[in-house]
Amino acid sequence: MFCMPRLRAFSGIQPTADSLHLGNYLGALRQWIDLQSSYDCVYSVVDLHALTVTPDPEALRRRVRVTAAQFLAAGVDPDQSVLFVQSQVPQHSQLTWLLNCVTGFGEASRMTQFKDKAAKIGEQGVTVGLFDYPVLMAADILAYDAHVVPVGEDQRQHIELSRTLANRLNARFGEGTAQVPEALIIKETARIFDLREPNAKMSKTGHPAGIIELLDDPKTITKRIKSAVTDSGTEVAWDPVAKPGLANLLAIYSALTGQPVQTLVEQYQGKLYGHLKADLAEVVVEALRPIRRRTADLLDDPSELDRILDQGKDKARGIAQGVYGRIAERFGLAVQEA
Known about the structure:
This protein has 338 residues and is mainly alpha-helical. Helix content is 54%, strand content 7%.
């Protein structure tokens, strides 16, 4: 029986902290896990992107391994998916240069995230690497002929640039030069906000007490949830505008238990916010316990983690070398066989 080849998905997360957070897990990792059953998945610890914030070298090396371990602990299966470290596949950097040569300065300047970050850092702190970040992201995607890229809504503009560059290559060198990717934005994916600043997305750059990290101990998780900002009321109700902090807690609760928000609202009628927070803390602790335990096991067995990442590196290089060679040859470059 003839089987159609599966479409390919690509995504990555930067190793810029000692632990991923709950927003990474609910907004990205769980989606990655689900995609493994229906897509040919390629997932990366994108350490080249992390260089834009000038990390301490030893911290970066540690965080690469901790991030990869958390991918695996959350459910990325190295026998189903390709899991690798970005810097170990040189075609990412090579393809970035080719894409730089077909990217307009103006279109790169208009990237919203670059403008936002540049405004915060100030002109003296902006590097060419930060400016070129979206082109490297496009190279990450195009290097694997990715059909879909699971991302949050805030990354849509970056995927649009990837699509623009792929179409530009195809127009210049002929159809089939580059696969044109699509953003895979699943609307029902929970968007998790900062526990202290509930109008801001949970982020590694957010309020330290507003983040729940996957590797936090139970006491820390409980403390942060119980101290989460809500409002001056007492009624448990779903109102993201008037009660953003409470809505965020309900969204987390719903995402981790599968219970609809309205069911939770009904369950807590006549109860106080404190009851909801106490129960939610238990839910989060239990949901993250196996991830924390599995991550520790992997980090305690460095040879096994190395084996998995080496296996992923070889698979990733095998794909990326072929794609890069095809594109580079059409530019007129002499491509050395792998």
